[in-house]
Specification:
Length: 243
C-alpha cells in the first residue's frame, strides 16, 4: 500500500550522551560541484569514525540537479541554468537563491539503519519547521516531499514547498532537503520538477504563502525542529568553512 510508509515507527534516536551533530551555515553561496565533493569527503570520514556528523545549510546559484530517477522528458526547459547529474535518488530538482538547502551527513547506524524511516524523519523535520511559521506542511504516501494544500487555487490543489533527495554510503547519508523560502518561482516554469506532472500540483514558498521570513529565521526554525527529531547539535563557527 502506498500509504504504508506513513505508518512507520519514528526513526530511532541516537543513544543518550552521543556526540552532538555539527551544525554549520554557509556564509555565501556554494557551487553545487563543490558541495558534492565536500559531502563525499565528509561522509567517508564519518564512516571511518574520524569526523562528526554534520548538517550544512547552504544556498546555491540557480541550477538543476538530475537524480537517479530523472527521465529525458524531465530535462525539457532546463537550458536556462546548468544541469548537474547527481547520485542522489529522485527526479529533477531546482536549487537557487532564496531556497535553503540542508545537506545532512548522518550515521544511520546510530539511528536504527532504516532508510525509509530516515526519509520520513526528514519530512517531519520540514513539517516541524513550517509549523513554527503557522504553515501546515503535509506528507503524502505516494509523493516524497512536503506539501501545502491550496484551496485558493481550486479543489484538490496542492503545492510542494520542500523537496528531498538522499544517498546512503556505508550507512552515512548524503544530500538532504531543500525548502523554498523566497526563491524566484518562475525558475520552475517549463520544467517537470521532482517528476510532478499533475496540473493540480505546483510549487510554492513561504513568501508565496504570505510569510515574510528571513533566511536566518528559517535557519533558527530548522535547527529547533531538527533537534526534536534527530537529537542535539553543536553550532560551529559560521564564519569558517567546514572540513
Amino acid at each position: 500500500m502506498i500509504n504504508d510508509r506513513l505508518a512507520l515507527a519514528p526513526l530511532k534516536p541516537p543513544a543518550s550522551g552521543s556526540t552532538p551533530v555539527e551544525w554549520r551555515v554557509a556564509a555565501s553561496p556554494v557551487g553545487y560541484a563543490e558541495a558534492v565533493a565536500f559531502m563525499e569527503r565528509r561522509a567517508a570520514a564519518i564512516a571511518a569514525g574520524t569526523a562528526a556528523e554534520l548538517v550544512w545549510l547552504v544556498e546555491h546559484p540557480p541550477l538543476f540537479t538530475a537524480g537517479s530517477s530523472a527521465r529525458g522528458e524531465d530535462l525539457a526547459g532546463t537550458g536556462r541554468f546548468p544541469v548537474h547529474a547527481t547520485g542522489r535518488g529522485g527526479h529533477l530538482t531546482y536549487h537557487g537563491p532564496g531556497q535553503r538547502v540542508g545537506y545532512a551527513m548522518l550515521d544511520l547506524k546510530r539511528r536504527g539503519a532504516d532508510v525509509r524511516r530516515y526519509v520520513l524523519a526528514l519530512e517531519e523535520w520540514i513539517v516541524g519547521t513550517l509549523a513554527r511559521f503557522n504553515v501546515k506542511g503535509e506528507r503524502r504516501g505516494d509523493r516524497i516531499g512536503v506539501w501545502v494544500k491550496r484551496p485558493d487555487k481550486g479543489e484538490g490543489c496542492e503545492d510542494k514547498i520542500a523537496a528531498l533527495g538522499i544517498r546512503v554510503k556505508r550507512w552515512v547519508t548524503l544530500h538532504g532537503i531543500s525548502l523554498n523560502v523566497a526563491p524566484d518561482l518562475t525558475h520552475y516554469a517549463g520544467v517537470l520538477s521532482c517528476g510532478v506532472s499533475e496540473q493540480k500540483w505546483g510549487v510554492t514558498s513561504l513568501k508565496d504563502l504570505g510569510v515574510e521570513a528571513t533566511m536566518g529565521d528559517v535557519d533558527t526554525a530548522l535547527r529547533a525542529s531538527f533537534e526534536e527529531i534527530f537529537g542535539p547539535v553543536r553550532v560551529a563557527d559560521e564564519a569558517s568553512a567546514p572540513v
